[in-house]
């Protein structure tokens, strides 16, 4: 979902929640999502809100710090996407053009990740080819668990 740059994040929350296929078990959000409406909506869906309270809130909500720390990965991803000048500056007049360049930036990040991961695991799994081929032919993935065949 793409919103105008000057729009507050929490204003897009209702539309964003309509877009998803399932209810979240947990929602990680920054202090911009700290509102009773957001917290109540997540709880009505059976989820847990991992949103730190703003300093001015009368009732402070506790947040699982280990869970909230995972949000850093999301922030780093957006930082990498904004390394593409066209994504960071939003010069495109049409939302379709901007969305296309966001997608290209995401693909670029994904390709680097897949290449680095396959290179690492390729070296890690050397000499284990017979073990992996046995596992794959019998319906188990190389990283444990049943394969999705």
Q: Would you mind describing this structure in some detail?
A:
- With 149 residues, the chain is mainly alpha-helical.
- The protein has two domains: 1-69, no CATH class; 92-149, no CATH class.
- It is built from seven helices and two strands.
- It has helices spanning 13-19, 36-44, 65-69, 71-81, 85-89, 95-124, 129-137; strands at residues 26-28, 48-50.
- Strands 1-2 form a two-stranded parallel ribbon.
- β1, α2 and β2 form a beta-alpha-beta unit.
- It starts with 12 loop residues before the first helix and ends in a 12-residue tail after the last helix.
Tags for this entry?
149 residues; 2 domains; two-stranded parallel sheet; 2 strands; 4% strand
The tally of domains stands at 2
Largest sheet: 2 strands, parallel
Q: How far apart, in Å, are the first and last alpha carbons?
A: 32 Å
Mean pLDDT: 77
The amount of helix comes to: 40-55%
Q: What's a concise summary of this model?
A:
Helix content is 51%, strand content 4%. The chain is mainly alpha-helical.
Which SSEs are present, and which pair or pack?
Elements (H helix, E strand, L loop, with lengths): L12 H7 L6 E3 L7 H9 L3 E3 L14 H5 L1 H11 L3 H5 L5 H30 L4 H9 L12
Parallel strand pairs: 1-2
């Amino acid at each position: 979902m793409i919103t105008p740059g000057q729009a507050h994040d929490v204003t897009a929350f209702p539309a964003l929640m309509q877009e998803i296929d399932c209810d979240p078990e947990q929602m990680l959000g920054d202090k911009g999502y700290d509102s009773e409406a957001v917290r109540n909506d997540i709880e009505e869906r059976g989820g847990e809100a991992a949103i730190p309270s703003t300093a001015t809130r009368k009732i402070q909500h506790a947040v699982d710090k280990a869970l909230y720390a995972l949000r850093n990965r999301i922030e780093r991803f957006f930082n990498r996407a904004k390394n593409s000048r066209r994504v960071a500056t939003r010069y495109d007049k049409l939302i379709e053009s901007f969305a296309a360049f966001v997608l290209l930036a995401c693909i670029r990040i994904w390709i680097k990740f897949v290449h680095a991961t396959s290179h690492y695991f390729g070296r890690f799994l050397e000499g284990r080819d017979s073990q992996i081929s046995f596992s794959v032919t019998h319906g188990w993935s190389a990283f444990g668990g049943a394969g999705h065949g």
